[in-house]
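Reopening this ticket.

The earlier resolution said the output was attached, but the attachment link was broken on my side. Pasting everything inline this time so it's all in one place.
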Amino acid sequence: MAEISQQQVLDALKAVKNPVGEGDIVSGGLVSGIFIANGKVFFSVTVPAERAQELETLRVAAENVVARLPGVVSAVAALTGEKKAGTGPSAQAAPQAHQHGRAPARQ
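Inline output:
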């Protein structure tokens, strides 16, 4: 049995619509980490972290389209959450104008 190629996987995944933009998940740059061994295909689909749970159907659809390829024994897709820059706790500094315990400025 011929080994499946990464390009065949990518071509199949072009059938999966990009839920966070235009086009498909491949042209949107959401597919990464494709690993193929003995007919088993593993890959990641990057989605916004806050939408990962609702996009579980996307993961299943991506697995199914790859699993139907000739020579594929199984397909496993992992959703990889990507957080937007500046949304972590360290990026949210306390506003300086609302410090408590200081007397109001004199006019």
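Reporter confirms the inline version is readable. The radius of gyration is 22 Å. The chain is about 20% helix and 25% strand.
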